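Listing S7. Sequence submitted for prediction.
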Amino acid sequence: MPHHRYSPAHDRVRIALGDSEREWPTRLITAPPLWVPVDLRDGNQALPEPMDTERKRRMFDLMCAIGFKEIEVAYPSASRTDFDFVRHLAESGAVPDDVTISVFTPARTELIDRTIESVAGLPRVLIHMYTACAPTWRDVVLGRDRDALRGMIFDASEHLRRRADDRLSGAEVRFQFSPEVFNLTEPDFVLEICDGVTALWDASVDRPVVLNLPATVEIATPNVYADQIEYMHKHLARRDAVVLSVHPHNDRGTGVACAELALLAGAQRVEGCLFGNGERTGNVDLVTLVLNLYTQGVNPMIDLSDIDAVRAVVEECNRIPVHIRHPYVGDLVHTAFSGTHQDAISKGFARRAQQTESSGRSDSEIPWEVPYLPIDPADIGRTYEEVIRVNSQSGKGGIAHLLQTGHGLDLPARMRPDFYTTVQLVADETGRELSGEDLWKLFHATYLAPAHDGAYLLEGWETRRQGSAHEFTAELVTAASRTPIRGAGNGPLAALTDALSRAGIAIDILTYSEHAIATGPDAPAAAYALCRIGEREIWGAGWDTSILTASVHAVMAAVNRADD
């Protein structure tokens, strides 16, 4: 690979900030920026099948519903569909009172006029003008030097202001300028252009101008972009009359990092797309940025409490599926197949349950601390059923967790490796994921009702207490025989094992536990017994509304497993 054809980007664009000037590394993000989705313009231009008015309207309604207050809706001069959608919003009354519509236009007078024509009748509008400013774009695309490009931008800025004053009187109109490919433009030139535009538009605290500084094509590490933003933040004229905005793309896969570092460096506004759609590798993902803030205890002011519903609308409108590993929303991002991860997550949930019970607080009042889960899936409308899933890579902790959450079984710690071996064998043989219902059926067949041709059954059994001793009587039935048995001991199970031993089945109970599955007189109970039968140690389990009956079934299940 001819790597010598490429030069390090920082040699061309890095700004040499002194230690006293570079403050972003020590700052924290403690409040959300203004989020501006550009799915309906920038994201729409990147679709194989651009959205029609119906799909655009559905996406727009979603954005309003979850809390976006400024939405870039179209490039009106680019297509009839985009122009018509802006007119649809203007004429239908669909724009909420607290939402500002943004539209996009190149710095060309005839396209500015078309753009202004589209927004007539909207009460609040932001007109976003752009021009590419980087050297390669000036030379290859525009064929203009710095002086010519400066003149073109300033002329377009004056034209935009005049036309807006003439055609949009009565509306609340603000302006935005993007020096496209800001991150590859000479700092002195982009600063000169931005200051000139804010002067021409008479930016003020009451009517601020948005200066949007896009990383149109990611070419450097995020710290370089942060330095560029901090330089502009500290050197812009009329800084208090400027809303400093960023628009990172994701060519290097660091769009989210660029946006977050830019906020540390002084940016106040972020443009991006839901789930990162956009040209090439996409625009920065607003959903990830929003939830990154949320997991740090900052209210992002965007409601993603039903993230699956949001994804469904976006997928339908974009006709592009969200990847199963996409941060926060992918089908598998809250899911653990690995045994060590499953065990840690299960213990995390168990600890939360203990904290809730001991403190008397609700689950929502307890700080979220569960290993491997940076966010509570329930906060974004996901269920816990998807957190732990079982395949051949899974462990005993995850298997036990699914049985407990799905069927109320609290397997003893010493029993879990035994069942894990059985599950692993099935997972390896089938090569597929096992559901909670699969695990229950496998547990039932293995421990609750092990059946084979020589199985032992107890019929007519009963226990009686005589003083401190217990007596157990029954008929021990196989396919070939029926034998009365009787035994005594200091408890019902001791009497049962004595009766079985007298019948030729040498058995000792090594450990035993039981628990109710639910509350109430008819609630089932589960019992688990580890028995030594001959030279083997065998687990059995029982299930019944009577704890004693469940216990007897557990012992007999172990007997039958030993004889299988």
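Caption to Listing S7: primary sequence and predicted structure tokens for the chain studied. Residues 519 and 525 are 10 Å apart (CA to CA). The chain has three domains: 3-12+29-318, 339-435, 457-562.
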